[in-house]
Design brief:
Layout (H helix, E strand, L loop, with lengths): L8 H31 L3 H16 L3 H6 L13 H4 L4 H23 L4 H36 L2 E4 L6 H11 L3 E4 L6 H17 L3 E5 L2 H6 L4 E4 L6 H8 L4 E6 L2 H9 L4 E4 L16 H8 L6 E4 L7 H6 L5 E3 L1 H4 L4 H13 L3
Parallel strand pairs: 1-2, 1-8, 2-3, 3-4, 4-5, 5-6, 6-7, 7-8
Length: about 350
């Protein structure tokens, strides 16, 4: 146990080490907490990190604080060039996670001599921070993908074509930034090889690459996300496997499915079919008015899908539909680049 009444010179030095590292750990935790709060808007992580700060604060005993007055710190104010080189939020997260982990390791080692409870606390929090760092970095990556979803109104879904890569590149050159790859035929090996090629193409044009349905192909091709239909794998399971770095979209056409998708944390929703479509011959169109009701309170990106063509986009725009998903209009086009340019112009037009 601590004996604050009779600290010797060595004890004072150890108290000073613990004091300095408690400050470092809490400062680093505050950086992570504020990024989780303001940068990501993730309440769950804010609460966990804040709890760690409070626990360390509670164990920052007065004897540690007083020790800083006894021995001068001759290295005070030292900095390192790497602190200036941090240019991204990810670098800030990583460096501050390391700061917390290193400080907690020091506390764990030195408090073992005088305060075993604090040593155990430092060890437990340190291991938690490894996981939190990975989650925050994954969420930051996902946040960039979600920004692309918010900023772009055209969502292109592929169909199986002999010259599919050429078609996709033409559409990307035109300015489309979201590609969902859908395939129903071919072997897994062939589909994966094609998916990797499309992923690399999308990366070149700073565009999202999303796989329809197949979680295994999405993982193997390092896709940016997956789109799940009503009969596909459930969102919670998909999230467990994919983690937070990937985006997950859901197909929905009723209030219950939309509500469940929101509760489970989907990143966007595809709603339809709006009109009759050859792609989903067995599905009855929802219609404009019903989709208006379903989406009036949605606060995540949603895309109207089903029977949408260049000829009815202006009609959709007049009814408040800003984002659309297309398949055959571009996949079957004689000039996909020109068609994509015209559609993008139509979607960017403010009524």
């Amino acid at each position: 146990m601590l004996d604050p009444n009779t600290p010797n010179a060595e004890d004072l030095r150890i108290y000073q080490i613990i004091d300095a590292n408690l400050d470092r750990a809490r400062e680093g935790l505050r950086v992570l907490e504020d990024w989780a709060r303001f940068g990501l808007g993730k309440e769950k992580f804010v609460e966990r990190i804040k709890d760690f700060r409070q626990i360390l604060g509670k164990n920052h005993l007065e004897v540690y604080k007083q020790s800083r007055n006894h021995i001068e710190d001759k290295c005070k104010g030292l900095t390192h060039q790497e602190q200036i080189n941090r240019k991204t939020s990810e670098q800030i997260i990583s460096s501050n996670s390391a700061r917390v982990q290193e400080a907690l390791r020091v506390i764990e080692e030195f408090s073992r001599l005088h305060n075993l409870d604090l040593s155990k606390i430092a060890s437990e929090i340190r291991y938690e921070i490894y996981t939190i760092e990975n989650d925050l970095l994954s969420l930051s990556k996902s946040k960039k993908s979600v920004e692309i979803l918010k900023e772009n109104n055209l969502y292109v879904i592929t169909d199986q074509k002999d010259n599919l890569l050429e078609i996709i590149e033409e559409i990307l050159i035109a300015g489309a930034r979201i590609i969902q790859h859908r395939f129903k035929k071919g072997t897994d090996k062939e589909n994966l090889q094609e998916a990797i090629k499309i992923k690399n193409l999308c990366k070149r044009y700073n565009s999202l690459f999303i796989i329809n349905d197949r979680l295994d192909i999405a993982l193997a091709s390092n896709a940016d996300g997956i789109h799940l239909g009503k009969d596909d794998l459930d969102l919670k399971t998909a999230r467990k496997i994919l983690g937070y770095s990937k985006i997950i979209g859901i197909s929905a056409n009723n209030k219950i499915d939309i509500s469940n998708a929101l509760k489970e944390g989907c990143d966007y929703i595809g709603i339809g079919p709006v009109f009759e479509t050859a792609t989903k011959k067995n599905k009855k169109p929802i219609g404009i008015e019903e989709i208006k009701k379903l989406t009036k309170d949605l606060n995540i990106p949603w895309f109207a899908i089903g029977g949408i063509k260049s000829t009815n986009i202006s009609y959709l725009r007049r009814n408040g539909f800003k984002k659309v998903a297309l398949v055959s209009q571009l996949m079957d086009s004689e000039d996909p680049k020109e068609d994509a340019i015209m559609i993008l112009k139509e979607l960017s037009y403010e009524n």
